Amino acid sequence: MKIIILGAGQVGTTLAENLVSEDNDITLVDNAEARLEYLQDKHDLRVVRGLASSPAVLREAGAPDADLLVAVTSSDEVNMVACQVSYTLFNTPTKIARIRQGDYLREKDKLFLPEVFPIDHIISPEKLVSDEVVRLIDYPGALQVAHFADQRISLVVCKAYYGGPLVGYAISALREHMPHIDCRIVSILRQDITIRPQGSTIIEAGDEVTFICETTYIKAVMSELQRLEKPYKRVMIVGGGNIGASVAKRLEHSCIVKLIERDAAKAMVLSEKLSDTLVFHGDASDQSLLFEEHIENIDAFISLTSDDEANIMAALLAKRLGAKKALVLIQRMAYINLIQGGAIDIAISPQQATISALLAHVRKGDTPNVATLRHGVAEALEVVIHGDEATSAVVGRKVSELKLPNGVILGAILRRNEVIIAKKDVVLQDEDHVVVYVSDKKIVPDIERLFQPSAFFI
């Protein structure tokens, strides 16, 4: 596939790194010459320097015969115009744009039409991060939750602790503990080493366990790995930007929400906009303010400013003063593994959330959802099977008969309205939605080829 990526920031660069290893023809466009030279030396891709929305630059980047344009520059306006130019002049088949401004998103049904701004898919990092934060609040104790197949199937990452009934026992004991609930444990991270789980694998305290199950049963499965935490009822949010305001709005009817904003004018606007949220003008690193607002009673402290260092320091202080959980927004990927799992419980990456959403549109075949997992190497994807026994390598075959690469596990299937755990004797059918766990993203092209129907398959 010939792909043009506009913008060599963190998202554009990470997307290029993900796709260049999958036999795609990648061209990266940006104004920063030094950064382009570095990326060209490091990866097998073309680079073009210039304004991303310029017809001449797009032509030089190969827009006339590109299959896909991904506009992820730091400017919404440049992204929108680039898609318009690419459509009007070069008839590019698929155009994806990152749009951040809420004003544009609120009018998206009128703006993003073929006759106005012809954008096929809109990616909004703010909405993606808000969704992720709310999911983590909904499932206390989870480190990551990703929904698939119309939210009927979920992948969950959580830590095993002493007190969990399965801790100290083999995975096979899960069936005895929960005879009426099916789930598939797909990965265990133990002391930074990934273990492929077998029935005889013993779950140990401290293991980071990734499992796939029907969404309804998430808490039941988690209760086997840890003592379930009580629902978060008292939440403190730092930062009244788009993400902070959105999270507060979505939580304020089910939780007691306090929001701290440093800018007085913005705090005033938020206090009028958020009817059930208590908004403070102040600094989250002010000990006296946190004490006054009873930080020791806060179930979840969520720091969502655009400043990584401020988020980290505020969360560390809040935990030291008694907050039960700390979630922080981190822009720099290098910080995430450094801080997560210590005093700070969860680091949320807008880049990772954005990449996951982009990959769902970039993957070959019918792939409605993709989730990049917490450490960035593994991936889970939802694939819709099409074809019959004559045109497909998977339709009509048992899971045990598939030639799956090492590190690939079929987790669960949504068939019409039924969720089925993909056991060895399950026979795959046309229109099945299959959630596949891939331990290494480099294997994804093999999975795409396996599930794509072919008129020449024998």
TrEMBL record:
GO terms for cellular component: plasma membrane
The keyword Membrane belongs to this UniProt entry's keyword annotation: no
GO molecular function: potassium ion transmembrane transporter activity
Domain called RCK C-terminal: residue spans: 143-227, 368-453
UniProt keyword terms in alphabetical order: Ion transport, NAD, Potassium, Potassium transport, Repeat, Transport
Ranges of residues in domain RCK N-terminal: 1-123, 232-348
Xref: Gene3D superfamilies: NAD(P)-binding Rossmann-like Domain (3.40.50.720), Regulator of K+ conductance, C-terminal domain (3.30.70.1450)
Keyword check for NAD: yes
Pfam families tied to this protein: TrkA_C, TrkA_N
Coiled coil: none
NCBIfam families, per the entry: PRK09496.1-1 (NF007030), PRK09496.1-2 (NF007031), PRK09496.1-4 (NF007032), PRK09496.3-2 (NF007039)
Protein name as catalogued: Trk system potassium uptake protein TrkA
Naturally occurring in which organism (per UniProt): Exercitatus varius
Gene: trkA
